[in-house]
Design a protein that fits this description.
44% strand, 2 domains, 6-stranded antiparallel β-sheet, Jelly Rolls, single chain, globular, mainly beta, 249 residues, 1 helix
Amino acid sequence: MFVANQITMTYSHVDRIVFGGIVPLGAPISLPDLGKTFGTAYFLERREMGVINIGGDGSIVVDGVTYDVGHEEALYISKGAKELGFSSTDAGNPAKFYYNSTPAHASYPHKKVTREMASPQTMGDAKTSNRRTMNKYIVPGVVDSCQLIMGLTKLEEGSMWNTMPCHTHERRMEVYLYFNMSPDAVVFHMHGEPTETRHLVIRNEQAVISPSWSIHTGVGTQSYTFIWEMAGENQTFPDMDHVAMTTLK
């Protein structure tokens, strides 16, 4: 996801999600002209965007207004924003802006979300190796958005499973970005239909797309952190189709 002094971008037909990373070193990095790619006058003409910084301190300029976005802080950028610029406070410890963008039908105010503003929820148990805290950054009640939902989940030391017992949500898709992993660590990310699961080997700062019909869970060789993003029919966070452990194959 993250390449020094570049913008990476992945586009998926699954709910038209766009995601990638931005790592500015020297001069600020601006989004290129993407109107032709998306058939619009500019990138966010019919889209909204959420950004979470997993690196050093940085800033984002939205149509001339500067937002300082520190480590593990987020910025919601509304539909209609035309000019976006990304910079790092210290090139020796650059910001790593992870962004997601989804189609939008209305404009809501841009909003910065600090770690203190995020809605935390601790769940799981050390006995089942899945003790973790979910921080909800872009969700109803914290940020108004059209369909974009984003958050960050941290596993406690000694816990390695996320989202287990697992679920699907037929009405929303999801993207996971795994990070805070050592170079020799991996996460075995499970996906597929509950009765025919598969796995991918995911390394530090790699992301995986999960369509709505697929489970999404993972187990690592150490604890880790991941950012999740959802888009689809609704923003009802508990709208999940839970899968019984006896069903999994």
